[in-house]
Sequence to fold (61 residues):
Amino acid sequence: MPFNLGPTELIIVLVIVMILFGVGKLPEIGGAVGKALREFKESQKSDKEKTNKTKDDVANK
Fold:
């Protein structure tokens, strides 16, 4: 699990989020978090590919 959170901790976080934002906002918040995670992973992948390309370019010189 990311950040070493177990099931108990995740449930506690979910309950706190429900209290703070209300049940009606959960789908909206979940969608925003999912989108942010996808963009972050795509950015990491892109950066890794650029790094590998740069390493290959340097190795070929």
The chain has a mean pLDDT of 84. Residues 3 and 9 are 11 Å apart (CA to CA). The first helix runs from residue 7 to 21.
